[in-house]
Each structure stands twice: as C-alpha cells, then as structure tokens.
Amino acid sequence: MILQHVADGILSGAIVALGAIGLSFTMKMLRFANFSHSELLTWGAYSALVFVAFFSSFGGFLDQTIGPFSFGPGLLLAMLCACVATAIIALLLHRFVFDRLSRMAGHMTMVFASFGVALTLRHLVVLIWGSDPIYYSRELQFAILLPGNVRVMPDQVFLLGLTVVVVIALHLFMARSRTGIAMRCVAESPDLARASGVNVDRIITWVWAIGASGAAIGGVLYGMTVQLRPELGFSLILPLFAAAILGGTGSLYGAVLGGLIVGLSENLSVMIIPTTYKPAVPFLLILAVLYFRPEGIFGERSR
Amino acid sequence: MIGLVSYIVFFLILSLIFGVAVLGLNLQWGFTGLFNAGVAGFTAIGAYTMAILTGPARDAVFGGFELPFVVGLIGAMVASGTGAVVVGLATLKLRHEYLAVATFGIAVTIQLVCLNWEYLTGGTLGLIGIPNPSKAWADGPLAQNAFYLGVVLVVVGLTFVALERIVKSPWGRMLKAIREDDVAAASLGKSPERVRLEAFVLGCMIMGLSGALYVAFIGYVSPWDFLPIVTFQIWTMLIVGGSANNRGAILGALIVWGVWTMSGFVISRVVPSEIQAQGGAMQAVLIGLILVVTLLIRPRGLIGEELHVSRHARS
C-alpha cells in the first residue's frame, strides 16, 4: 500500500517538477510570482489535442500505437508542436503584458496582471474546448505489476522516463552551453550579467521558451495519464509554487526535487489525513519552508 | 419599469456588498501594501459565521443560534478578524510575492474546510434558510430588497467614513509610510510588523462583514461561492477603481460588477442555450482582460491615489 503511494507520488511529482522548472526560473529571473504559469500546462495539453487530431488525419504509422503504450508517434510529434505553441503563447504574453509592465511599473503589478492572464487563459480553454473531460486516446492498457504489489501503467513509465530525459537535457544545457551559463548569470544578477556583455533580453526569451516547453510537456503527460480538464493547470498552481519555493527559486534541481517532495507528500498524506484535504498539503509545505528556510533547499541565502 | 427598478436595486445590493470587501482590500493593499491573495477565504469566514449565528437550528450541524442580524454582522467580523490574527502572525513577515502565494493557499484551505467539515459548514450542500432581516420590516420582494439596500448603504457608508477617518489619522499616515519604506518608518520608532498586522486584521474584518451581508441577502451559504475567482474579481475591482482611494474602491466594484452582470445578460440573450456554460467563461475572460488592460493603459485606476503634501511642508 505504502509503496503504491510512493509510486503515485513520484509520478505526480514528475509532472509538478516539469511545470515548476519554468515557474522557478521566472520567479528568480523576472522577479515576480506568475500565477498564470499553471495555465501554460493547460494550454500545452489542449494545443497538443489539436495536433493529435491533425497528425491522426494522416493515418498510417502516425495513428498506430507503440508497444504497450496508449499513444503513437502522432502524440509525440504533437507534444513537440505543443511545446512550440505554448512557448509562442508565453513569449506573446511576455512581449505584450509582462515585459511592458516590468518596464513601466513594479513587480507587484506583474503579479496582478498574472491574475488577469490566468483568468483569461483558463476560460478561453472552456470557450474553445468546453468544460467536459477529454482524453487523447481511448486505448486500453494493462497495468504492469511491480514487486511490492505496485501497479503502474505503461504510459506512467513513459512519463517518468521522459521527465528524466528532459531534466538531463536541461542540466547539460545549463551546465555546458553559453546560453545556459548566461542564464545562470542572469539569475544571479541581471545588472552584472548585462555589464559583462550578456544580452539579457535574449536570455529572458530563452527562460520563457524553456519554462513554457516544460509546462507543455507536463500538461501533455498529465492529459495522457489522467485526463484533460480546463482546471488541469489551475489545480496544480499551489503544488507548482510549493515545488518552486521548496527547491529554491532559480534552481533546476531544486524545482525537480521540490516537485518530487510535493508529489510524495501529497500522496503519502492520505495515510494520515482525509483525502479531501489533500489539496492543502502543498500549502502547508510552502508555509513550513518559508518559515524555516525561506531561501529553499537549493537556494542561496541573500544578504 | 418595476422590473428595471427591482433589477437596479438587486444590482446595487450585490455590487455594494462587493464594494465592502474591496474597501477592506484597499486598506491592506492600497494603503499598507499588503498583498492579500486570499480575499475569498476571509469573506467565507464571515459568511459562515453569519450563517451559524443567525441561521435556524438543524440536526447534525453545529450552530443555528437564531441570533439577531446585527449580532451576526459583529460575530462575522470577530471571526474573520481572529482568523486574520492567526494568518497574519504566520505570514506577514514574508515578502510581497511570497505573501501572495501564502494567502492564496490559505483561501484554498479555507474553501476546502468549508467543503468538507460537514458538522460546521454543512459540506457541499452549505447552509440554507439564513433569515433576511428585511422580511420583518417590508412586504413583497421589491420592498424587501429596497430595505436591504438601505441596510447595505448604511454599512457601506459607515465603513467608508470610518476608513476615510482612519487613513487620514496619524495611524493612517503611518500605513503609507510603511508601504513606501518600512526601514525609514522603523527608524522613526514605528513598528512596521505591528502596524502591518493591525491593518491586515482590520481589512480582513471588513471582508468578513462583506461575506456576512452576502449570505443574509441570498439566504444561504455555499462553499462554491468562495472559489479563488472571487479573489480575482475583488482585485480587479480595486485595480480598475484605483487603489489607495476609497471612492475608487466603491466605483471599481460598481463598474466591474456592472460589466459582469451586463455581459451575463447579453450572453444569456445572444448565446444559444446549449452552450451557456461557455457563455459563463466569456464573462471570466472579460474580467481578466479588463484587469490586464487597466494595468497596461491606466495603472493607477480610474481615480487613483490623491497626493497629499503635509501642511507643515508647504511654503
């Protein structure tokens, strides 16, 4: 029983981690709490739906399923396209809302604006796709029985594998590429980075693109393993913030570890508190970390 | 004609009840700079307290004391104020955006408690049969609503006058000093922590008052009336009207609630009934856009803060 909770916790934690990477980066580098970030997961998931329909209209191998999974190459291509589409949405928001506000007003104005953006994005999904749950595929899957009587679906194994691949790729990008190194500079101090010749605006474009792509992948994986709902992202807003704050904003590993901690504690909490109170768990984690270690686990103490 | 009048009365009651909550938020954000993203939670505390104190006795649910309306209002303020003391002590030392995240989480948690603690809140069904004080004084729906509008106007008027006096008092000037620069205020011997807590608690009490007025008017309380979207609506009202201006707070409530109900009316007429749910989403999209556009083209709101220069500093 406990092992099943651990497995479920790791799986939901992986999705939270993917979403929290972008939130954590924007909190650190753009210095505002973006309440609309979770809506990027929703938009990622729903835009993939459009591309799935597009690719499956070609039929042939794109419409086939791969091995034990419920999806085929069509969904994987759709996921890539969804990353691009979500990144475009994020960059448009940055260009027309957040960047303008950061130039003419304070950071808090950006937070209000993110309320408005979240409201608009979420209800546009209802307007376009309706409020009923949707699934990418109706394929049936057989659960895999792991030692310890733990059941997981093949899609969930894929979810975990893809998350690991994405995190390793991002790690290499941040550690090796010039852009990744510049990104870490901007996180440290935008002014110093600019003084050393880093094109801060270009780096911020990268931050949004990476954050939105992570969110889109998280959203598609959520849609694949649970379902697509317009509140998909909104219901994850506290877990995302909890993961970003827990790990320390601006830290890739922090966001990933934060996501896992959030997922695990949510799923293990049902052994001691009623399931109905599960959504309050991320909030308690936020309070605890802000109280005892406000800079987060991987964050650096400033001042 | 009667239809229009009763519609306007109904509209004014609801928008002024929102206006009370906006006044509370204005004290916190407009004057003190406290980012409370959990407004819905504190109005919920007031609303449920009103329902428990004044509602009819029921089996298996706590409360139903059938106390008078005014006792309900006072009780609601005391309860949300008490909640605010606990929340404030735990969170007010956080910086802006962390305070926003923490208070947002508090509102989500309060809504969960409302939804699940059946003994206290009636669970998903909520509590029904909350008496409306106007029933004892007037006959017929229009006269009763007109009477209740009078009650709401008195409460809004008293709150408004009290807040105007408070923000012009030395304590009110201290709020602005702390908002602008708390280190400077502390260096003058003021205690920013204490004053922040006081402003937070007072603002939350006013939000609780708004929740109490709401349930006594509609006659029931339901956990679905306190979702985070309510917080976003109230914030939009403050931003549109102009923060740090109490008249702006009321104006914002009237305008934003006006847009909400008018758009709802138009949608119910124009949009075919089978996609009415989508029509409701259109309203929310509109509110979100109003908030973003206001911030972009008129960040201080319609009537923003009036600048005051101390009379000692003139000449």
SSE diagram, text form:
The complex is a heterodimer of chains A (303) and B (315).
Chain A: H1 2-29, H2 37-56, H3 73-104, H4 107-129, E1 144-146, E2 150-152, H5 154-176, H6 178-188, H7 190-195, H8 200-225, H9 237-247, H10 252-269, H11 281-292
Antiparallel strand pairs in A: 1-2
Chain B: H1 2-31, H2 39-54, H3 69-91, H4 96-116, H5 118-121, E1 127-128, H6 141-168, H7 170-180, H8 182-187, H9 192-218, E2 220-221, H10 228-241, H11 246-270, H12 276-297
Antiparallel strand pairs in B: 1-2
Helix pairs in contact in B: 1-6, 1-9, 1-10, 1-11, 2-3, 2-4, 2-9, 3-9, 6-7, 7-9, 10-11, 10-12, 11-12
Q: What does this molecule look like?
A:
Chain A is mainly α. Chain A has one domain: ABC transporter involved in vitamin B12 uptake, BtuC. Chain A has helices spanning 2-29, 37-56, 73-104, 107-129, 154-176, 178-188, 190-195, 200-225, 237-247, 252-269, 281-292; strands spanning 144-146, 150-152. Chain A is globular. By secondary structure, chain B is mainly alpha-helical. Chain B has one domain. The longest helix of chain B is centred in the first third of the chain and has 30 residues, at 2-31. Chain B is globular and about 55 Å long. The chains are: A mainly alpha (303), B mainly alpha (315). Chains A and B meet through helix 3, helix 4, helix 9 and helix 11 of A and helix 4, helix 10 and helix 12 of B.
What characteristics describe this protein?
heterodimer, A: 303 residues, mainly alpha, ABC transporter involved in vitamin B12 uptake, BtuC, two-stranded antiparallel ribbon, B: 315 residues, 2 strands, globular
Brief synopsis:
The complex is a heterodimer of chains A (about 300) and B (about 325). Chain A has about 300 residues and is mainly alpha-helical.
Give the second-level CATH assignment, the architecture of chain A.
Orthogonal Bundle
Are there runs of chain B of 5+ residues with pLDDT below 50, and where? none
- Summed over residues and divided by their number, the pLDDT of chain A gives a mean of 87
What portion of the residues of chain A fall into strands of 2 or more residues?
under 5%
The strands making up the biggest β-sheet of chain A line up spatially as 1-2
Number of β-strand runs of chain A:
2
Assembly state (oligomeric): heterodimer
In DSSP terms (H or I, runs of 4 or more residues), the helix count of chain B works out at: 12
- Largest sheet of chain A, described in full? 2 strands, antiparallel
Sheet with most strands of chain B: 2 strands, antiparallel
